[in-house]
Specification:
single chain; alpha/beta; about 15% strand
């Protein structure tokens, strides 16, 4: 695990990065009067002014939001579409995003420092912000309705079950990341003790695969597209990507409650834009594949492997909206309960002062 000095240095770097985002917004309007010598003309002018005023008031309000994301990857394709393919602007929203190569533990430090309007991360993010930083935050929506990770070892190795991995290094993305809580929770669910395993932060999925290939780890977590790219080199120990077996709010959208209360329309527009982007991909898989390639988020997979990835994230075409991505962006109480069960069951989060569903959603915008 990381040392205290390592975490302190990491947080200083993150704090420096966190000074880079800012937002502004402004509007204005005016009027006039008629003369008795041209009453008909004046009336027409007044009528025209009223019509112009009505038209002006009918125009959708414009918003600006910035978003923090953890580690760019295929998973973030909906956000890329929102920002680059008009889904945000169609809802009156100008969206900018910044991505950081770390887990939700880093995101909480950055967001608590005042950077970003919306932060993406596992449900642990709003819980940490509530428990550790005493922030009043709102979960405005849900992006993942299940986990995106599988645990793999080298193809042909003796490590085929969690039991086989006792005493061995298991790679996770970072201390305090969703993968950290997920692995510890699954170890406990198997009747084992996390202390008997060397659960080690290794960084992003490319780093995970490099550690596996160089025998620095007996098993690592992976996700699309790397899981498909390396399928011939690995064997699956556990696959937690299944919304029916492992429902989990593995990535939610979190905002400051004061800002949501101040401008609920902006956050409603955000969730609507997300849902529209996923809906478009769901209805047109060919277009979705083109966008995944154009964004650079698909990796170097074959067209066939790319379709497998899309099925994993969207659900099979005969079972739409059963994949990793939530189609609606809605964060409901059933999903909250699954998240609480995993987080408290991992041993990292005490039941005491765990925020209730109402605390996390009472200001959530209605879409």
């Amino acid at each position: 695990m990381q040392t205290t000095d390592g975490r302190t240095a990491s947080r200083r770097v993150i704090a420096a990065i966190g000074l880079t985002l800012a937002l502004t917004l402004a509007t204005a309007c005016g009027s006039g009067a008629p003369s008795s010598a041209a009453s008909a003309s004046a009336a027409a002018s007044a009528s025209g002014a009223a019509a112009a005023s009505a038209a002006s008031s009918a125009q959708p309000k414009s918003y600006k939001l910035s978003m923090l994301l953890v580690t760019a990857g295929f998973y973030s394709l909906p956000v890329w579409l929102m920002e680059n393919q008009g889904f945000a602007s169609q809802n009156g929203l100008t969206l900018t995003s910044a991505q950081f190569q770390s887990g939700s533990g880093a995101a909480s430090v950055i967001f608590a420092g005042g950077t970003g309007d919306v932060s993406g991360g596992g449900m642990d993010l709003p819980v940490v912000l509530h428990q550790k930083y005493h922030m009043d935050v709102t979960v405005i929506g849900d992006m993942f309705q299940t986990n995106s990770f599988a645990l793999v070892s080298k193809a042909g190795s003796k490590y085929k079950t969690l039991q086989d991995l006792k005493g061995q290094v298991i790679g996770i993305t970072g201390a305090g990341a969703w993968s950290n809580y997920l692995v510890d929770y699954q170890i406990k669910q198997a009747g084992l003790d996390p202390k008997d395993f060397k659960v080690t932060p290794l960084g992003g999925i490319p780093n995970q695969m490099a550690a596996l290939e160089s025998d620095k780890a007996a098993a690592v977590i992976t996700q699309a597209p790397q899981q498909q790219e390396n399928a011939s080199k690995t064997q699956v120990i556990a696959d937690w990507v299944d919304a029916t077996k492992y429902p989990a709010p593995a990535l939610v959208f979190t905002a400051r409650s004061s800002q949501v209360q101040k401008d609920p329309g902006a956050y409603a527009a955000f969730v609507k834009a997300y849902a529209a982007a996923v809906s478009k991909m769901e209805k047109d898989r060919t277009w979705a594949a083109q966008m995944a390639t154009q964004s650079g988020l698909a990796g170097s997979v074959t067209p066939a492997a790319l379709q497998i990835e899309l099925d994993q994230y969207l659900g099979p075409q005969d079972k739409p909206c059963t994949g990793i991505w939530s189609c609606t962006g809605a964060f409901n109480e059933a999903m909250y309960n699954e998240g609480k069960k995993l987080l408290t069951g991992s041993g990292f989060f005490p039941e005491t002062d765990f925020p209730t569903f109402t605390q996390l959603t009472q200001y959530a915008p209605k879409t």
